[in-house]
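Example record for the data management plan.
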Amino acid sequence: MTGPARCFKPCTVVLLFSASLLWMAPSRGEEAAFRMPEYPDLAPPPPRSQAEVAALLAGGEAAEAGPAEQAPLRIVLVAGPKDHGKGEHDYPNWQQVWAKHLPRVAGTRVETAWEFPTAPQIDAADVLVFYQHGDWNDDRAAAIDPFLARGGGLVYIHWAVDGRDQHQALAQRIGLASLGGGISYRHGDLDIDFTPGAEHPIARNFRRIRWIDETYWKLAGDPAQINLIGSSIEEGRPWPQFWTIERGRGRVFVSIPGHYMWTFDDPAFRTLLFRGIAWVARRNIDRFNELVTLDARVE
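Corresponding structural encoding:
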């Protein structure tokens, strides 16, 4: 989001996890192919330690050899025009990087879409991941509602939760949604409490995590209807920042953080998003663990 109000300049398999897997660095002189290519002209947050990442990933289970895990996982990454400054809301570069990143896991097939998937993409997809300036209208509802009804999975990241003048209708599908800039928001140091979602597989091993990114609050929708994963204290009270919701046979995972592109290179944030994708697809939650530290900000 943009706007001067409340905006502050930023000032934090089978899994016998091997330390050698914790950081796969690019060769000297080569650009990190799986890292976001551009950050803001601000001091980035410190990298995660290898010990912290190993603790977050601990306790995983081997993928079962059932039909669901053997079937290809088909993901569509949905982006749109960049709408913020350098290293912020860089939907096109995210789409380009993740379209290379996710297929490194065997059995994962990725397509990309601009603004909204085509009907054939939706028909074939297991998961649609939206990172863009969101929108909602009758055409989107006519495509998304049958997708959820048949058991499809949705992931919404950051400003994708904007439903514009149909924000209430979007909230009915994803739990909470924004009416343009008519919400409250804050850029800066985030302290996310994951104890509300401690029993959810997406939040396994997460308790409190700090990022430099952006929170939203005062969104439309009924917070009592969501499964809260993580919250932050804003204006003296907790507000949802990560959540899930189930609609019919379909599942939805939402992350409000995702403003700055360095966040997508943070292993903790990647873990949550990758688990969110796996969860909405009803696949092994640790399916993407090998990607968590690939060109990530970890030392």
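Summary line stored alongside the record: Confidence is low (pLDDT under 50) at residues 2-30.
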